[in-house]
Amino acid sequence: MSAPAQPTERRPTPEKPPFRVADVRRIFGASGRQFGILGALVAIVIFFQVLTGGKTLDPINLLNLVNGNAYVLILAIGMVLVIIAGHIDLSVGSVAAFAGIIVAISVNQWNWPWPFALLLGLGVGALVGAWQGFWVAYVGVPAFIVTLAGMLIFRGANQFVGNSTSVSLPASDSFAFIGSGYLPDPAWGVPLNLSTVILGVLAIGGVLLREGLLRRRARTMGTDAGPLWVAVVRAIVLIAVISGATYLFAKGPLGTSFPISGVILVALVLAYSFLANRTIIGRHIYAVGGNWRAAELSGVKIRRVNFFVMMNMSVIAAFAGEMWVARAAASGPGDGIGWELDAIAAVFIGGAAVSGGIGTIVGSVVGGLVIAVLNNGLALLGVNSDRVQIIKGLVLLVAVGVDVYSKSRGRPSIIARLQRRALSPAEGDGSDS
Amino acid sequence: MSPGTTAGTDAEAAGVAPILEMRKISKEFPGVKALSEVSISVGPGQIHAVAGENGAGKSTLMKVLSGVYPYGTYRGDIVYRGQLQRFRNVGSSEAVGIVTIHQEFALIPELSITENIFLGSEVTRAGVIDWGEQTRRATELLALVGLREDPGTQIKHLGVGKQQLVEIARALHKDVQLLILDEPTSTLNGTDSQHLLELILGLKERGVSSIIISHKLNEIEQIADSITILRDGHAIETLNVRAHGVDEDRIIRGMVGRSLQSRFPDRTPRIGEVFFEVRDWTVRHPQAPERLVCKNESFEVRRGEIVGLAGLMGAGRTELAMSVFGRSYGSYVSGQIFLDGREVVLTSVSDAIAHGIAYVSEDRTTLGLNLLDDIKDSVVSAKLRKVARRGVVDEARERNAAEEFRARLRIKAPSVDERVRQLSGGNQQKVVLAKWMFTDPELLILDEPTRGIDVGAKFEIYGIIQRLAAQGSGVLLISSELPELLGICDRIYTIFEGRITNDIPVDRADPETLMRSITTTQKKAAPR
User: Fold this and answer.
1) A93 and A151 in contact (C-beta within 8 Å)?
2) Phi, psi angles (nearest 5°) of residue B494
């Protein structure tokens, strides 16, 4: 279409653009969608830190925050994949409770060693997931219905297996560490927890290595890695956050460290982010959610993808149930009630689209953290649970409402508006000839 | 900057106040200036055509007019019937009689013709729908647009041509003064198109003005009173059809800024052995198992050959092609596929892709692309394995592959990170082509690859097809545009009601023979 004979006007591009506001977005990934929710999290933390007089970022409170919410955040990881693929899973609470009671019984009554019990629980999750995946992917029943049925079926199964009573775990069992355990502390006369410090240093090393590898890879492939300052700022921000968190967790009471549930959460976030962004199966999940007909005609085996996301969700739900049982040292008939709603809320606050195809692991976990900090901060302030629920409901509605509104009006985000203002003088010069 | 934008339209020449004037309309999207100071003016009872390449800004201009882009998101004035208008949404433009008929229809398939016509403006008595009155009025409106159907018929039972007429009936019900038609005939066959054009002329007699966007220049030439040509967001010129003696070549020259000597690039075919063969192919309809979509049909493609599959919409061309492409349509009954003389069984799309077959669907937005994706995701999406190692996608290789195709196919976009939703139709189509070329196809099946695409982009796409053939691939081109088939194919199959009715080398084919073969079952007509 570009006629060679006709000279087209081109904006003169300087050799090295000194500063483009557009690049600010690249600090937080190309899409910039996570920027808003991350900002919201920081704002909420600061808000409560001020109102509670510093109690929010107190080490003990942070430990409770992580230990008490890790299971929901882990559920959100599975849930966002389900929602990206265009489905929903209402059964996660019941599945978690069902797997939990079986783990508890296997340890308590059959005297299984805990590692086998854990594997058994995950196996139960896999079977449940295969069941639900079969109905969704191969029969074609909408996931809403399949998992609504699952919610009833596995709640009932939990109560059937456990006789509608609680099954407790032997107190001595080391299985508790996945729910409320801490890393070992050599305590070489340092006031800080050494394992936490080592983890922090490793994380900082990981950040630097990643930035370095990204830039080198881009150079060898001849692609644009973006301005250096973006990478530097991103690294500095990440390192600052990691250092701060390391310090806060390391200076907690003796015997505590960054919680093991937190370590598991971080590991799962990294692993699943990699899966979602960098692997073929991850791309296929987005493709199916974005336009399943086009995906099918591109050779994507959509049944397998749907089966995978549903099964994966149930395995993750089973694991979350295990963490819960480990922390509570018991499994009861009412475990996991309402978890599906927390997980779904986290995913949508984290920027996923109801129609599928859009969403990120990190965004969903940050969305979950927003809810967690809100719960925690309101509790610290002594707000009653009735009002907490009202506030949480409104936050969910407003967060998604703002997202939908800004998209439907085609109105650019704040960052995009800044970016346009920065660009417009240059554009004005070029177009008037 | 914009020569002749305000130059004489009929209305001004005749001293009649125009019904619509759009003055110096500018519209920007982040990073792109879609329209700059475009002015058009339409007289009462006039048919005004807007022509231009894909991405020239035609659809954007119409969206500004209809309120899809509300007042405040563009610069410039819309003056309609002497008054400055500030449309907040589509509803407010329709309230004053400006109705748009889109390329994709806004009809609800499960509802009846009557229900669709009155959707949103139901005739009620005391809050209850007055079905008798609605049916009576619907019958009148259908008679007016020349559609002989029971108004109780569900939309899904109508063909595209008839659906188009229902859309127009609906516009008439809304008391349309200015009808905007965006590519109204792109999905219609010859007869239906002609009927539609006559209907538009009929409306003109009744005083309804129209703005028509079309890539079919012969239609513009046939019905338009004046033409505004857009190029890259600028109004290049406004031509008065009667006064200026405008013909197709003249319009093309305005659109592309040069005259296209030939609409098809030159090529010397180098045709090799038969490498792809379908024998006795029989497929059942997916919903109605007693119906056969095709029965014992056979065809073959040689290396380096561009084979046409001519047929009208609904003749079974798409169904045949898709059933061959990994049985993605209907249920397979019998038949064999041979690749280089060896039989292959392709039971899934991924099998077909693995065997070097690619299918570019006719509907790029619902079947070809994930509109949420950016260009680079789309380009590699049909063969991710090529840029992946052990299941992990290498993003640098992905980007390089996408950049290569962006340059090779001249996809107009600031970068490969651009979302495909933002691209114009022609550029989206190039992305779909890139996606399938990326799979290194030996047989490329193209289903209406140039529908809704302007002349310049068509020329480029023909060039791409020819280069693929020159590299030894075979091409099966499905099309209902006979000039296109005659222009670039080496051999043409014709299909009618699911049967291949003819197989004609292009040097012995002419439009009349083809037309006869795609509208009748006579096999004897072949000039073999």
Assistant:
1) yes
2) -115, 145
Per-residue pLDDT of chain A (433 residues; tens, 9 = 90+): 333 444 444 444 444 445 555 555 555 554 455 567 788 888 999 999 999 988 888 888 999 899 899 999 999 999 999 999 999 999 999 999 999 999 999 988 888 888 899 999 999 999 999 999 999 999 999 999 999 999 999 999 999 998 888 888 876 666 777 877 888 777 666 777 888 888 999 999 998 998 888 888 777 776 666 778 878 888 888 899 899 889 888 888 877 888 889 999 999 999 999 999 889 999 999 999 999 999 999 999 999 999 999 999 999 999 999 999 998 888 889 899 999 999 999 999 988 888 889 899 999 999 999 999 999 999 999 999 899 999 989 988 988 887 777 666 544 444 444 444 443 333 333 333 2
B24 φ, ψ (degrees, to nearest 5): 45, 55
Among B223, B217, B216, residue whose Cα is nearest residue B242: B223
What number is the ipTM of this complex? 0.77
pTM score of the predicted model:
0.76
Size of interface A-B (CB pairs under 8 A): 119
Inter-chain residue contact A217 with B31, CB threshold 8 Å: no
Which among B368, B392, B412 is the nearest to A294, CB-wise? B368
Longest dimension (CA), chain A: 85
Residue from A298, A308, A358 whose CB has the most chain B CBs within 10 Å, to mutate: A298
Integer CA distances (angstroms), B108 to A252, B167, B282, in order: 62, 11, 32
Burial class (CB in 10 A: 0-12, 13-18, 19+), B174: middle
Instruction: Give start and end residues of each alpha helix (H) in A31-171.
Output: 33-51, 59-84, 92-108, 114-133, 143-161
